Amino acid sequence: MDAINNIILGDNCFANTVVNRIIQESKNFFQNKTPWKLCSTSCSAQYGSYMFDPYGDIYPCLEIVGQKKHCIGIFSEGKIEWNSIKEYWHSYNVGKNLICKECKYALLCGGMCRAKEINNINEGDLTCTLYKSAFSRAINYSYSK
Ligand code: SF4
Question: Whole-prediction pTM value?
Fold first, then answer.
């Protein structure tokens, strides 16, 4: 469990979230006999989280606020007007990523962070590597408890 603990105690917030999710799901599975939740996305940016900037522009995720091409709508005079970019974010799922759709963990993981993928931030790859390496250790850990 040292490697998993190092990940959890490290300062990569997104990786911590991913690893904690595996541990929680596997504990629920082995200890409470709760079916593992399958997910086609890994983040609420793809199904309903909204960030409003001070000008009323709406974005799907904090990482992407200010990048106008990812503005999904506008809040003005008490009303929200969505645009077609919203559908681009909300129709994306693990089956639309060429790497993820071939992955055996696809519906357990839910895929990479869309914002990091778009911004070409390697943390997306890091999270993927972490998921794959932490998965079997987290399962073994939870099973042994
Ligand atoms: S482990 Fe990596 S390749 Fe597999 S679904 Fe998750 S992000 Fe995609």
Answer: 0.77
Residue that has been written with the tokens 């506008």 in this structure = 74
Q: Is 108 in the pocket of ligand 1 (CB under 6 A)?
A: no
Is the distance from the beta carbon of residue 100 to the nearest atom of ligand 1 less than 6 Å? yes
pLDDT computed for residue 9 by the predictor: 44
Q: Ligand 1 in contact with 128 (CB < 6 A)? A: yes
Residue-wise pLDDT for 69-101, tens only, equals 999 999 999 999 999 999 989 998 999 988 899
Taking CA atoms, 134 is separated from 65, 72, 99, 114, in Å, by 30, 34, 19, 21
For ligand 1, say whether the CB of 113 is within 6 Å of any of its atoms: no
pLDDT number for residue 118: 80
Strand order of the sheet with strand 57-59?
A: 51-52, 57-59, 73-76, 79-82
Q: Which residue has a Cα nearest atom 6 of ligand 1?
A: 111
